[in-house]
Design goal:
alpha+beta, Immunoglobulin-like, about 15% helix, signal
């Protein structure tokens, strides 16, 4: 084998080992960011509502509902729900009496690997409860 051919064989081997090493030790691709979604469905003309939270990364064990308020007022804690869904009185969602309500949840969930996590959901806007609807 000539010197040139030996050099070429070593070069090809080194490149193959480098590529294999990169493939074996490169980090796994990043997964999509976890998210939790709040949905509110009014039942019975606003007297009750079904609230549901679902998370992409695990099973919801509980969630706290909050009414969003502008600065400098802190957000209002409204109610705690155990599990991922419940029917509640619409008045629990009426955080701005006579005005539009802005509701979001703080979700508590468990991943498939058993890790407990917390995540804020999207905001749902609407007019909830009987205070704004005298026909309830």
């Amino acid at each position: 084998m000539t010197r040139s051919r030996k050099w070429h064989t070593r070069l090809v081997s080194a490149v193959a080992v480098s590529i294999l090493g990169l493939a074996m030790f490169s980090p796994a691709p990043a997964s999509a960011a976890a998210s939790c979604v709040l949905s509110i469905t009014e039942l019975g003309g606003g007297f009750t509502a079904r609230v549901t939270v679902g998370c992409t990364e695990g099973v919801v064990t509980a969630f706290d509902l909050y009414g969003e308020d502008g600065w400098p007022n802190p957000d209002d804690f409204l109610i705690k729900v155990w599990g991922g869904s419940s029917e509640i009185l619409g008045d629990h969602l009426n955080e701005d009496v006579g005005a539009r309500d802005e509701i979001y949840a703080k979700a508590f969930y468990t991943t498939s690997s058993g890790v407990n996590k917390t995540l804020k959901t999207n905001r749902v806007d609407g007019y909830f409860g009987c205070v704004v609807d005298p026909l309830c």
